């Protein structure tokens, strides 16, 4: 608002008027309060003095207290104030508002002491009888210079304040109306003075917003007319340039919007001047929050700032790769100086290489794991083959034993290849689920029936823990049964004879949670977070047979169903594997 020339003219006048009005108002308020308080005090003192003079002209104190009480009430009605008559020792002889017998001795009250010492006393203090602030005024009752008693008048402080406010409001109303008139007059003067300039400014603003239609029109003053003609000529020159720039800007904006790489332009003050949507996503910001702010504030990694510094100092392209903590992102940042086209500006290009790095890591882990897992059976097959070639074929019992062991190793290799193919198909989405309504009891019982003979061979008991009623689930029964069989198989493999395995399910909100609990060797706490990784085996499982792929397959199957799988274990106490599946009954 203050940028307008109209207001630049009007505001000083308005400020001066308001300042003067405020000064007059404050001074008037203090003056009114002071004058009114003094007048009220003098008025009450004069009234009290009249009462004292009237009482001094008659025997005091009177012989009958009732006469004095009636006079106090009469004065109360005339003066609209509390009237109290006291003896010279402070005893209340009569009171218009209170029974004198219940009134306390008032000799030590400040207003009484002042009246005795100075001829008049007053004070504003709290009155317990009236439960409010009161103005007390007291004057002595004298006869021949001797104090016979005290006359005291009292009125509520609220009455004084109300009267002051009423008078002050009237004064402020007059001051306000005067100020308002002055303000309107100052604005009218400013309006008439600046009207031609404002009209020119409005027309110019429309052109700066992109409306380059007709020429500006001026009326009146020759100086403004000359300025308008010059501006019209400038607009004609700029129109073609603006159209060309808009075309180039649209092309650049389209490129930046569609780029998957993050782009920033940093100026010489290390502030962001441009950022594209891809960079906004990478750094969890927006153009409104980033542009004009420090690069360090947006990037939040000192490595990127070091990259900027290095590029600025050496004047050539620099690159750096960085893992962003907590975001599972691997970015490559490239800093490019923009040279003479934009001096002291640097282009930052961010490429998200997370997927490439993840694939590389997965490939390395896979090669490492598969090499490790194939080494043992292949080494065993080679040793058995060499043993047979060395003459074991001449010993039929030994040869048969070696061939059986070779068959076992080949079966292990075949199982590993089968499970690898199965896991690969599941991960690539080539195994569609055949969803249907399935009974939880049927799934659990079917899995237990498949593993019962294996458990009996190891003298292990399998129990069920199923509530009477459980909602159905929408799932692929064959795949869910495969998960249950895998978990029961692991529980049997890692449990000692004569132990018990419990298989069951329970309802939890919108899910059914299946569980397989054993009393086996348990899983070390450090291994627990990794047991669902492919080929991962705990130290206790190293001596046993198995590919280390079963739990990874189970996890993918459950995730495909929209569920979750997890394990709880205590070393040498047993383990419990859980997985959840959405139930058909959401209620």
Q: How would you characterize the overall build of this protein?
A:
With 587 residues, the chain is an alpha+beta fold. The protein folds into five domains: 6-163, Beta-Lactamase, CATH 3.30.450.20; 228-258; 260-352, Beta-Lactamase (2-Layer Sandwich); 357-427, Helix Hairpins; 436-582, 2-Layer Sandwich (Heat Shock Protein 90). 52% of the residues lie in helices and 20% in strands. The protein is built from 14 helices and 17 strands. The strands form four sheets. Strands 2-1-5-4-3 form a five-stranded antiparallel sheet. Strand 6 and strand 7 (272-275) form a beta hairpin. 21% of the residues are buried.
Summary keywords:
5-stranded antiparallel sheet, 587 residues, alpha+beta, Beta-Lactamase, elongated
């Amino acid at each position: 608002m203050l940028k307008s020339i109209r207001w630049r003219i009007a505001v000083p006048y308005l400020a001066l008027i308001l300042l003067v009005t405020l000064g007059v108002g404050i001074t008037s308020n203090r003056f009114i309060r002071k004058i009114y308080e003094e007048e009220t005090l003098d008025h009450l003192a004069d009234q009290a003095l009249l009462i004292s003079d009237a009482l001094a002209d008659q025997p005091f104190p009177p012989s009958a207290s009732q006469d004095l009480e009636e006079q106090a009430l009469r004065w109360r009605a005339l003066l609209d104030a509390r009237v109290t008559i006291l003896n010279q020792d402070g005893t209340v002889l009569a009171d218009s508002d209170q029974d004198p017998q219940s009134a306390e001795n008032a000799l030590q009250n400040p207003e009484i002491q002042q009246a005795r010492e100075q001829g008049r006393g007053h004070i504003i203090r709290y009155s317990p009888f009236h439960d409010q602030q009161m103005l007390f005024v007291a004057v002595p009752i004298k006869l021949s210079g001797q104090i016979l008693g005290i006359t005291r008048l009292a009125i509520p402080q609220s009455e004084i304040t109300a009267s002051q406010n009423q008078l002050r409001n009237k004064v402020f109303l007059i001051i306000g109306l005067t100020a308002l008139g002055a303000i309107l007059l100052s604005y009218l003067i400013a309006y008439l003075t600046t009207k031609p300039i404002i009209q020119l400014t409005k027309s110019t603003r429309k052109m700066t917003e992109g409306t380059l239609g007709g020429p500006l029109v001026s009326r009146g003053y020759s100086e403004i007319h000359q300025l308008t003609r010059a501006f019209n000529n400038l607009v004609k020159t700029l129109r073609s340039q603006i159209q060309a720039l808009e075309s180039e800007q649209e092309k650049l904006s389209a490129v930046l919007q569609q780029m998957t790489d993050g782009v920033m332009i940093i100026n010489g003050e290390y502030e962001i001047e441009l950022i594209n949507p891809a960079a906004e996503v990478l750094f969890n910001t927006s153009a409104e929050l980033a542009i004009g702010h420090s690069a360090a504030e947006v990037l939040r990694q000192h490595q990127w700032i070091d990259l900027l510094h290095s590029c600025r100092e050496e004047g050539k392209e620099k690159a750096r790769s960085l893992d962003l903590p907590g975001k599972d992102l691997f970015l490559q940042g490239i800093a490019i100086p923009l040279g003479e086209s934009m001096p002291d500006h640097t282009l930052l290009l961010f490429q998200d290489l997370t997927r490439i790095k993840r694939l590389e890591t997965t490939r390395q882990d896979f090669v490492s794991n598969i090499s490790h897992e194939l080494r043992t059976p292949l080494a065993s097959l080679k040793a058995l083959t060499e043993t047979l070639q060395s003459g074991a074929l001449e010993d039929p019992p030994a040869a048969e034993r070696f061939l059986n062991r070779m068959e076992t190793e080949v079966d292990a290799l075949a199982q590993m290849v089968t499970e690898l193919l199965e896991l690969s198909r599941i991960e690539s989405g080539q195994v569609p689920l055949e969803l249907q309504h399935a009974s939880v009891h049927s799934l659990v019982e079917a899995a237990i029936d498949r593993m019962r003979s294996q458990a009996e061979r190891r003298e292990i008991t399998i129990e069920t823990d199923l509530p009477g009623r459980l909602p159905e689930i929408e799932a692929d029964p064959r795949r869910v049964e495969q998960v249950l069989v895998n978990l029961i198989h692991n529980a049997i493999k890692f449990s000692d004879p004569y132990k018990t395995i419990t298989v069951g399910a329970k309802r939890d909100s919108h899910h059914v949670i299946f569980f397989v609990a054993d009393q086996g060797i348990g899983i070390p706490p450090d291994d627990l977070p990794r047991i669902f990784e492919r080929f991962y085996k705990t130290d206790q499982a190293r001596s046993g047979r198995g590919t280390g792929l079963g739990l990874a397959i189970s996890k993918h199957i459950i995730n495909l169903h929209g569920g979750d799988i997890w394990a709880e274990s205590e070393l040498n106490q047993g383990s419990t594997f859980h997985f959840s599946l959405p139930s058909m009954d959401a209620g």
